[in-house]
Design goal:
Elements: H1 4-18, E1 24-32, E2 35-42, H2 43-57, H3 68-83, H4 90-111, H5 118-142, E3 165-168, E4 171-174, H6 183-203, H7 207-226, H8 230-246, H9 248-251, H10 255-282, H11 288-306, H12 317-323, H13 344-371, H14 379-394, H15 400-403, H16 405-419
Antiparallel strand pairs: 1-2, 3-4
Helix pairs in contact: 1-2, 1-5, 2-4, 3-4, 3-13, 4-16, 5-6, 5-7, 6-7, 6-8, 6-14, 7-10, 8-14, 11-13, 14-16
Length: 423
């Protein structure tokens, strides 16, 4: 019979494996001003609930430190709950709030876990990275979904509405999402995977380990470039450079391994899609997606000015913007263009007010400050700082860390691992 500790370890690994797989079932549908939103029960929700039960059974709240970081996070959670009172569609707001609170729980769970090892979590995450790399490369070759909807794969293809794609000349290229809801979320997951693989690659001593980690590093970064996600590619490049520079004294020549792998990744991709990548970056500011992001941010600023303290209620930005005709006033008249602000911080301010944003930023500052001294002494802390730093940069141009299940889970898990102090 499994001991409680072994059972909990098994649940942790199961949870980590489920992160990239959007396995879900529609449980209800919310109808609001301009359309409807399906309410899903995800497999990852069940895994989080199981972890919560185990946490309660061992009274895990006793391990949570009474620090300023904890108080700032509780304050942020309290403000988001209060903001729900200002929401027009409280059902939708409550659904979003539940996901946020599950994320906050993950932070407390992983930051205060008594027997968790960070490398144990890293390895669990990387199992999912390997599987996503295989799935993503197969999808790119097919240029459409490959029939694994039971693992959370969405239906996509060159002629499927809502598919992330772009034109190179007369050719349409599909940007593959793996088993995520969008290619950009896959990009964030691969950012995490790339840096964690680099951590193990630089620490490897046996030739077999070096070869194995190098191959995985090659495949993961090849898929990253094939997502054509400009924000993810740029952020991974910067975070990798920072990680290598800071850890140079420790690894020195071993860093050459990573540079060789990156060289072969670019050599492979440039031979096939060099002109595509070049065009993708050169046309960044001329694409409709960029122009729409600017418009969403303008709407966000307007909403913050109108509701500065506690916002329009968590999960209610798009509903509010439609009802107040903020989209229509900017010639956005098609329903799929009614999207959230593509900026994590501005979206938090719009939905929970300036007070919510300040509490969130205070939590981040206190968390990073509490571990800052260990960045140069612990490779684990350094790589976690790079991952979370990368997430925070990606948050400047997107919203999935706030309102998409997989994005929320990744974000708060990594924050929890940053806060975790191993015995």
């Amino acid at each position: 019979m499994l001991s409680r500790r072994r059972l909990e370890e098994s649940l942790i690994y199961t949870f980590l494996l489920l992160i990239p797989f959007g396995i879900k079932k529609v449980e209800a549908i919310f109808v609001y001003s301009w359309g409807s939103k399906p309410i899903f029960l995800h497999m990852i929700d069940i895994a989080i609930l199981a972890l919560f039960v185990m946490w309660c059974m061992r009274r895990g709240w006793n391990d949570v430190p009474h620090s300023l970081t904890t108080k700032a996070l509780l304050l942020f959670g309290g403000i988001t709950i209060i903001s729900l009172g200002f929401a027009f569609h409280r059902g939708l707001g409550f659904y979003t709030l539940l996901h946020l609170l599950s994320g906050i729980f993950l932070y407390f769970y992983f930051s205060s876990h008594s027997f968790l090892k960070q490398e144990m979590a890293f390895r669990g995450i990387l199992v999912g990275v390997v599987l996503q790399t295989i799935v993503g490369l197969l999808q790119f070759k097919a240029q459409k979904s490959i029939g694994i909807s039971y693992l959370g794969e969405i239906l996509f293809g060159p002629f499927v509405r809502g598919t992330a794609n772009f034109y190179f000349g007369a050719e349409k290229l599909v940007r593959v999402p793996g088993t995520f809801l969008h290619t950009n979320v896959l990009g964030a997951f691969l950012l995490m995977g790339s840096l964690l693989i680099l951590y193990f690659l630089l620490r490897s001593k046996k030739i077999s380990s070096v070869v194995g980690w190098s191959l995985l590093y090659y495949g993961t970064n090849l898929l990253l470039l094939l997502t054509f996600s400009r924000s993810s590619i740029t952020t991974v490049s910067i975070c990798t450079l920072i990680y290598c520079v800071v850890s140079y004294k420790t690894y020195r020549l071993k860093i050459f391994r990573a540079l060789v792998v990156w060289f072969f990744v670019f050599l492979t991709l440039w031979g096939m899609f060099g002109n595509v990548l070049k065009a993708r970056f050169e046309n960044s500011f001329n694409e409709l997606s960029y122009k729409h992001r600017v418009i969403y941010n303008e709407i966000g600023v307007q909403v913050v000015i109108q509701h500065p303290l506690l916002g329009v209620g968590i999960g209610n930005f798009t509903d509010y913007a439609f009802r107040e005709k903020l989209y229509q006033a900017r010639q956005l008249s098609i329903s799929y263009l009614y999207q959230p602000i593509h900026n994590l911080y501005l979206l938090i301010a719009a939905e929970t007010g300036v007070l919510g944003l300040l509490a969130f930023l205070a939590f981040l500052v206190l968390l990073f400050k509490s571990r800052m001294r260990e960045v140069f002494a612990s490779e684990r802390v350094l790589v976690l700082f790079c991952v979370v730093g990368g997430f925070l940069v990606l948050g400047v141009a997107d919203h999935y860390f706030w309102d998409l299940e997989q994005g929320i889970t990744m974000f708060w898990l990594m924050l929890g691992l940053v806060g975790h102090k191993e015995n």
